[in-house]
Amino acid sequence: MNLSLTGILLFLALRYAKWSKWREFYPTILYIVMLNLHYSYIVKTSPLWKYKSSLIPQEMLDIIIIFIVEPSMTILFLSYHPLQWRRIFLYWAAWIIAFSITEYIFFLTDRMDYFRGWNMGWSVIFYIIMFPMLYLHYKKTPVALLLSIPFTIGFMWIFDYL
């Protein structure tokens, strides 16, 4: 199922993303990749969640998520991001709901495990933070970078990595 999501997101990104803006989106793509690599390094021996696949090894699955799924998601998210605040909140809600439902399906079909107290509720909270932070990074990079520090430290403290 994880490979299906990868294929779908990659197809959607290749087909529908606004590639004429890739240079604008590139720093934000690097931002999400960097944060996920940071997460992977911190939790390498004791993760909060783990995607599972019967077809490919865990390390390869992590690489696919970091370097294909997240960049594809980011470029699609930024390609159609609205400008009016009312529409922005609806847009964010749609992405949060879509990713939450997808993750829940992964969990129900045993394609994802949670550890150290992480659960679906924490994932929803994470998505509520992640999508606005992606947009903030795109619009005001220094602010997003500064805000990433307390969010990261907060999650590390809550889940006993500090």
UniProtKB/TrEMBL annotation:
<keyword id="KW-0812">Transmembrane</keyword>
<protein>
    <submittedName>
        <fullName>Uncharacterized protein</fullName>
    </submittedName>
</protein>
<feature type="transmembrane region" description="Helical">
    <location>
        <begin position="25"/>
        <end position="42"/>
    </location>
</feature>
<feature type="transmembrane region" description="Helical">
    <location>
        <begin position="144"/>
        <end position="161"/>
    </location>
</feature>
<dbReference type="InterPro" id="IPR048147">
    <property type="entry name" value="CBO0543-like"/>
</dbReference>
<feature type="transmembrane region" description="Helical">
    <location>
        <begin position="89"/>
        <end position="108"/>
    </location>
</feature>
<feature type="transmembrane region" description="Helical">
    <location>
        <begin position="120"/>
        <end position="138"/>
    </location>
</feature>
<keyword id="KW-1133">Transmembrane helix</keyword>
<feature type="transmembrane region" description="Helical">
    <location>
        <begin position="63"/>
        <end position="83"/>
    </location>
</feature>
<keyword id="KW-0472">Membrane</keyword>
